[in-house]
Amino acid sequence: MASSHSCEFFSDKEAKSLTSLYNEGGLAAVIPVIKDKLHNLENETLNIAVTGCTGSGKSAFINALRGLRRNDEGAAPVGVTETTREAKAYKHPNLPGVNLWDLPGTRSTTFQAKDYLKKVDLNKYDFFVIMAAKRFTENDANLAMEIEKMGKQFYFIRNQIDIDIHSYELEGIEYNREEVLQTTRNNCISKLIQIGIQKPCVFLLSNYHVNEYDFTAFTQTIEAELPEKKKHVFWLSLPSVTLQVIEKKKQILKKRIWMVAAAAGAFGAIPVPGLSFACDIAILVVELLYYREFLGLDPQSLQRLALNVGKPLKVLTAEVQNPFVFDITPQSVTKLLISSVCGAMMIADDALLVIPVIGSILGGITSFGTTYMMLRNSLDQFVESTQRVVKKALE
Question: What pTM did the predictor assign?
Answer without folding.
Answer: 0.87
